[in-house]
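Two proteins, back to back. First:
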Amino acid sequence: MSNFQLRIHVPDHPLVKHWLGILRDKDTPTTLFRSAMTELGRWLTYEACRYWLPTLETEVQTPLAVTPATFVDPQVPVAVVPILRAGLALLEGAQGLLPLASIYHLGLSRNEETLEPTCYLNKLPAEFAPGTRVLIPEPMLATGGSMLMAMTELTKRGIDPALVRVVSVVVAPPALQKISAAYPTMQIYTAAVDEILNEHGFIVPGLGDAGDRTFGTL
């Protein structure tokens, strides 16, 4: 992905590919689709945590001897900001790996004619503590409008874009170009980069509407 300044990570892992294939299949039933979203939320969050969560070096006493030990630093705040509603589908997998993280919901909807986002729910705090790590579960990055709106809200509350990690099932170049121009220090973890948006702003081949398929509202 040398065309973009920000770092795009596509884990070369058989389980990531497996669950992506299930999500792409139009015949996948809602219950299995939800399970696949949870699994990708888990695996992509696992990758995103690498070199992102600060650690403490210490020692512990085993039943036999003292040995060095590494722990995640509990003093550094971590926030998960799922973008509603489809981001909720990835939240369960992410939250399982980050059980102490604070969860702040951000509801954004896209006008299907203009493709511009609007905010209908904002549960972000007035200010984040310095150094807060933020994970954003957002299944699709198509035009990039929703992510840019989310980042505007986060940065004005003190979040450093370099400490933000995005987990997204499928992304497209238009979104990556816009995000790279505005926030080049962000990092995105995704199962696939699809090259095309259709006239309705949907990623092709993509997954279809991730929210509708997750919640059975097709």
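And the second protein:
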Amino acid sequence: MLFNSLPVGALTLPSRIVFAPLTRTRAGLEHMPNDLMAEYYAQRASGGLLITECTMVAEGTSAFVAEPGVYSAEQIEAWKKVTTAVHAKGGRIFMQIWHAGRASHPDINGGVRTVSSTATAIEGEINTPAGKVPHAVPHALTAEEIPGIVAAFAQGAKNAMAAGFDGVEVHGANGYLIDQFLRDGANQRTDGYGGSMENRARFLFEVLTAVTAAIGADRVGLRLSPLNSFNSMKDSDPVGLTAFLADKLNTFKLAYLHLMRADFFGIQKADVVTVAREKYKGVLIGNMGYTAEEAEQAITEGKLDAVAFGTSYLANPDLPERIKAKAPLNVPDSTTFYTPGAKGYTDYPTL
């Protein structure tokens, strides 16, 4: 089943093996895509779909110092190297568009203040060019400021298409801005963007409305992580939130819903896949720790339509070929996940 084709919005994927979005910080301080990134994505083009690392839709929102952006004409032009290289290998690629919210920091962004749903900082420290510092207390966005960010997502989607991408994935996961509105552990608002699930989802739905209007719903995916406690996140009812969102998302007719099934830290535990499958009528992509065998079983049993592989695909640029051949896999080198240069990035051997 993993190697069966799958219609996903405007595309038909040749397989159900997806390259998950993984931050790799190779874009430098100017947040500029480059030849090394083009090589990296092109190496992995044999999958059904590639999804890029989180990409900034607005200047001054960096959380990782050297992640890419898509808010300038120069970045759009530079991204064309990536899309051209992937398409030359017969691949398909979506850009993950993203706003870090309170996961950003003024020390990374020339003093630009961080923003969030609520004025509560992430616990612990963040890496900046000057070293580790405590996370900043964010400015709680006013209702009047939110439309500007919604517009930035829509413009980011247009810019991605101008750069040759096949579509975009809206990043609604892992404790970044959209997720900071969605989950009640971070959202303490008392206005129309806080309180009930419907209010907390308002920002997400406004973003999806704008992005789908900008480039067409059949070229838009969404990633959610209802359980992940990364970036000091939690929700009092993750299964209920998943059910609510999965049901409401049907009206958007998205290309897919990309669901992270677990928590990086194993703190929150629940089954969000079953309720998502029950409520969501479109293409459902699962993610987090799937082996090829488990992915095959989940698709065969109808629990998922496709599976996104992260670090195993990072370390095995020819992962689809290795799965087909039942070949051994390279082991990911976590010490090079966020370092500059080719080491641990484009030098993993193929079969």
